[in-house]
Amino acid sequence: MTKEHPPDKTHHHLPKMTEEEDHKKNPTTKKRYMASSPIYTSGPYRSICTCLSIFLLLAGVTALTLWLVYRPHKPQFTVVGAAVYDLNATSPPLISTTMQFTLVTHNPNRRVSIYYDRLYAFVSYKNQAITPQVALPSLVHEHRSTVAVSPVLGGRAVPVSLEVVNGLTMDEAYGVVGLRVVVMGRLRWKAGAIRTAHYGVYVKCDVLVGLKRGFVGQVPLLGNPSCQVDI
């Protein structure tokens, strides 16, 4: 009688998983594989990232350098002369006046020109306009240049409050009238072939003039007229 022997387990081996199957079943192994794979550590992917980083760095340095070199400064305004040809406040609530102011504007930039578009000017008293808005010609300011303009403001009656009429009457009797010359419009800066977008500009110059009732012509400016430029 033949004796049956148990099957020899040493001759039966489980199929060995390939490296790809091991990666699919074991996420940790997959991550280690990806981290060590040459496609993630070198080659085109890494070269593209390096080139992009260098490009962004150079672009940032270039933009900063251009800003430091060409950054525009606000223009400067000064009132250097004034004349009053008519001031009639005897028919409230209307007032009629004709005035002329000489304004000098300076471009302090060494490399940037200024282009003024659609400029308007008027005179106010106690924050109320006493002349209609007058359009000024467009101005071009080359770098480090100075331009003078002498607009004639007024010419027709405008409605005002009783406070303005009484205030002007009292100031004329005293001999000193405080006025504000306002210039507003749009400007843009130009550096070489590059022009910026339009920016709103608002200039207000507070002046004290020596004026007596009935006087016509050039009037003295008292003190140092100051102009504030907002952009």
Layout of SSEs?
Blueprint: H1 19-25, H2 27-36, H3 38-41, H4 44-70, E1 76-91, E2 94-106, E3 113-125, E4 128-129, E5 134-136, E6 139-141, E7 146-149, E8 152-154, E9 158-159, H5 162-174, E10 176-191, E11 194-195, E12 199-210, E13 217-219, E14 221-230
Antiparallel strand pairs: 1-2, 1-13, 2-7, 2-8, 2-9, 3-4, 3-5, 3-6, 3-10, 10-11, 10-12, 12-14
Helix pairs in contact: 1-2
Description:
With 231 residues, this protein is of the alpha+beta class. Helix 1 packs across helix 2 (27-36). Strand 1 (76-91) and strand 2 (94-106) form a beta hairpin. Helix content is 26%, strand content 44%. The model has no long low-confidence stretch (mean pLDDT 81). The longest helix is centred in the first third of the chain and has 27 residues, at 44-70. It is built from five helices and 14 strands. It has helices at 19-25, 27-36, 38-41, 44-70, 162-174; strands at 76-91, 94-106, 113-125, 128-129, 134-136, 139-141, 146-149, 152-154, 158-159, 176-191, 194-195, 199-210, 217-219, 221-230. The radius of gyration is 39 Å and the shape is elongated. The chain folds into two domains: 19-70; 76-230, Immunoglobulin-like (Sandwich). Keywords: Membrane, Transmembrane, Transmembrane helix. Its main location: membrane. Residues 16-25 have a biased composition (Basic and acidic residues). The chain crosses the membrane at residues 45-70. Residues 1-33 are annotated as: Disordered.
